[in-house]
Amino acid sequence: MARYTGPKTKIARKFGEAIFGEDKVFAKRNYPPGQHGQNRRRKVSEYGTQLKEKQKVKYMYGVLERQFRNLFEKAERTKGVTGEVLIQLLESRLDNVVYRLGLAPTRAAARQLVLHKHINVNGQNVNIPSYRVLPGDVVTVREKSKSLEVIADCVAGFNHSKYPWIEWDASIMGGKFLHLPQREDIPEKIEEQLIVELYSK
């Protein structure tokens, strides 16, 4: 399956949440898409609810099925609560850290910045969006890319103190990944236990 590049509002309406960030269209039409979207009251099975939650998180973080399955299996092998470890692994992806630092307006835009070699980790250029950022790593914009208008605009209007596991440093246009985030600090509405139950069947 290829990465989804279609209308994002349509997907957000499917899940009933603005999963890709602020969305003006979704705010006006937050019911499912389609002719009968406002009237549909279909009962969803337990499996359907679990599957929907997994799909929502995959779309949210821009991860394909095989990548997601590998992350889940890694979370299972890691000490701790599997669901929470899974979310921490997703949060420590480089494209997500770039997004959390406020260097890009969306995770998809952050992924593009990484792919186009605008991002350094500990002074070395990294162009792999799934690269795992470790506590203590410093993620910055490459020197030649600091003048990019899209990055400057994002940084200017961003609250850099909103995520306690990342420390922003304006002088280097980047930040330090202090530690893995606590579950309660992650703002997205995710029911990770449903995903664990789905993969445990």
Walk me through this protein's architecture.
With 201 residues, the chain is an alpha+beta fold. The protein has a domain at 93-179: Structural Genomics Hypothetical 15.5 Kd Protein In mrcA-pckA Intergenic Region, Chain A, CATH 3.10.290. The chain has nine helices and five strands. The protein has a five-stranded antiparallel β-sheet, with helices on one face. α3 (46-61) crosses α9 (192-199). The longest helix is centred in the first third of the chain and has 16 residues, at 46-61. The two termini are 23 Å apart.
Key terms:
201 residues, Structural Genomics Hypothetical 15.5 Kd Protein In mrcA-pckA Intergenic Region, Chain A
Q: Indicate the overall shape.
A: globular
How would you sum up the major sheet? 5 strands, antiparallel
SS strand fraction: 5-15%
Rounded to an integer, what's the Rg over CA atoms?
A: 18 Å
The number of distinct helices, counting runs of at least 4 residues, comes to 9
CATH architecture of the domain at 93-179: Roll
Report the helical percentage: 40-55%
List the topology elements.
Elements: H1 8-15, H2 24-28, H3 46-61, H4 65-77, H5 82-91, H6 94-100, H7 107-115, E1 119-121, E2 124-125, E3 138-141, H8 149-156, E4 166-169, E5 174-177, H9 192-199
Antiparallel strand pairs: 1-2, 1-3, 3-5, 4-5
Helix pairs in contact: 3-9, 4-5, 5-9, 6-7
